[in-house]
Design goal:
Blueprint (H helix, E strand, L loop, with lengths): L1 H11 L4 H8 L3 H8 L8 H11 L3 H5 L10 H12 L4 H17 L1
Helix pairs in contact: 1-3, 2-4
Length: about 110
């Protein structure tokens, strides 16, 4: 289960197994065994290393159904970028409404 989540997030980020292992500073063989469900109980320390590289929290790796990070990481990054640029929630909502209107005009 957790291995499937890690594999899915890794592929979503278009990362190879080797790349994730290298960036997180973990053993590729251990990561591979986790993704293949041979290892089912990774340590918190291991999860703390891979979670930030995958752009999620440790909690979302442990319980993806009960996490605010259920959203695609690209969407999360987009929302963060919008917030950092100073766009208000109201401006963002107005843009979405305008875009819906524009699509309906076609």
């Amino acid at each position: 289960m957790i291995g499937d989540r890690v594999k899915s997030l890794r592929k979503e980020k278009k990362m190879s197994l080797s790349e994730l292992a290298e960036r997180a500073g973990v053993a590729k063989s251990y990561l591979s065994s986790l993704e293949r469900d041979l290892q089912q109980n990774p340590s918190i320390q291991f999860l703390e290393k891979i979670a930030p590289v995958l752009g999620v929290t440790v909690n979302s790796l442990l319980d993806p159904d009960n996490s605010p990070n259920n959203v695609d990481t690209d969407w999360m990054n987009l929302a963060k970028s919008a917030m950092e640029s100073g766009i208000s929630k109201e401006q963002f909502k107005e843009f979405i409404e305008f875009n819906k209107w524009r699509i309906n005009q076609k």
